[in-house]
Amino acid sequence: MGKTEIGIIGGSGFHELLKNPRSIAVRTAYGRPSSKIAEGGLGGRRVAFVQRHGENHTIPPHRVPYRANIEALSEMGTSRVLASSACGSLSARFKPGEFVFFDQFVNMTSGRADTFFDADTVMHVSAAEPYCKELRSIAIRTARAMKLKFHDRGTVVVINGPRFSSKAESRFFSTQGFELINMTQYPEAMLARERRLCYLGIGLITDYDAGLVGQKGVKPVAYAEVGRMFAQNIGKTKELIRRMLEQMPQKRNCSCSRSLEGALATQK
């Protein structure tokens, strides 16, 4: 495989950004990733792109091969991952059409293969700071220069999907202080951390989930609206990522590469 610097995980359309891309079929110890890897140039860097839900959006959130996706990017030499996804709002402060750079997640999924350390070696990896602070800082600076409407942090609760929340569930999440809701940030973010990769979750807010607590007239989410909002803002997301790549220093200045230090429990 070729040596790449940056991994991008997202939906269709991002591979169109790459200069002279080549398509690579990859198989890892955890199976095949969601799609062939598109590798090419972007922002002066070598980039590898994988479509999270497959080339024709045939893979639901609970069946995304998260381990294979992260492993494939890691094996290609990637040290940083920018992951774009849609998310719903649980707070009137976070409005559809705005961007958010997650800083915390709450896992409410079940049944997903969510660690690389499930045989022979036990590692207790810290999830206190699951997102790369350096990447988030670059994203904030870039979004500000682009005059985008964005939030520099946000707590996202991750549900199994593919269904959306009931009103009772949405109300519960809101009362817990969770601000956003999504179906794919876990285990993706933690798997990247287990492979010592920098990871940034870039959320585009597309809807108000099952409505807003205490506010009438806010309709529950429908996928048609999610798709419309995402398509409307895909150009901004691409430009944000392209500009971020141009500003990224060659050397990482964060602690992500040391994420496994002190985590080993197995005696060898």
Task: Please give a structural write-up.
With 268 residues, the protein is of the alpha/beta class. It has a single domain, classed as Nucleoside phosphorylase domain (Rossmann fold, 3-Layer(aba) Sandwich). It contains 5 helices and 11 strands, in the order ββββαβββαββαβαβα. Strand 9, helix 3 and strand 10 form a beta-alpha-beta unit. Helix 1 (66-75) packs parallel to helix 4 (185-194) and helix 2 (133-145) packs across helix 5 (223-247). The longest helix is centred in the C-terminal third of the chain and has 25 residues, at 223-247. The mean pLDDT is 91.
Itemize the secondary structure elements and their pairings.
Elements: E1 6-10, E2 19-24, E3 37-42, E4 45-51, H1 66-75, E5 80-89, E6 99-101, E7 104-108, H2 133-145, E8 150-151, E9 155-159, H3 167-175, E10 180-182, H4 185-194, E11 198-207, H5 223-247
Parallel strand pairs: 1-4, 1-5, 5-11, 6-8, 7-9, 9-10
Antiparallel strand pairs: 2-3, 3-4, 5-10, 6-11
Helix pairs in contact: 1-4, 2-5
